[in-house]
Specification:
This protein is α+β, with helices and mostly antiparallel strands and about 120 residues long. The chain is built from three helices and four strands; from the N terminus they run αβββαβα. It is globular, with a radius of gyration of 14 Å.
């Protein structure tokens, strides 16, 4: 399987925040928006998460979860493409990995469930 395709442009983040579906957990906020090309990931960790080392740790943990659950797992329905922004909350750096996994799976399932993949009007 190929690697993670990152969202880098501010306009992409803004579009997902504005039009995407949201799911919130105590550790993460997931925004998801249908896409026609490929799965892409953006990660945000603000200063409330902690110092630079804690923010980087949070982002590494989220990338690892994305790699395990989305790229190598079966969390998304077959054939669907999603742009996803994951916002780390202040509990991410100190939470155990299994809790993060449960929260990530739960949030992604709820956000993707809100997206209508049968209707191809917007991407």
């Amino acid at each position: 399987m190929s690697g993670i395709i990152s969202l880098k442009k501010n306009i992409d983040f803004k579009r997902i925040y504005k039009r995407g579906k949201t799911a919130v957990t105590p550790t993460l906020v997931v925004y998801a928006l249908k896409n026609k090309r490929a799965d892409r990931l953006g990660i945000t960790a603000g200063k409330k998460v902690g110092c630079a080392a804690k923010r980087n740790r949070a982002k590494r943990r989220i990338r690892a979860l994305y790699r395990e659950e989305i790229l190598n797992g079966d969390l998304l329905p077959e054939g669907c493409r999603v742009d996803m922004v994951v916002v780390a909350r202040s509990a991410v750096p100190d939470a155990d990995f299994e809790r993060l996994r449960r929260d990530f799976r739960s949030a992604v399932k709820r956000a993707v469930k809100q997206i209508n993949f049968n209707n191809q009007t917007r991407a």
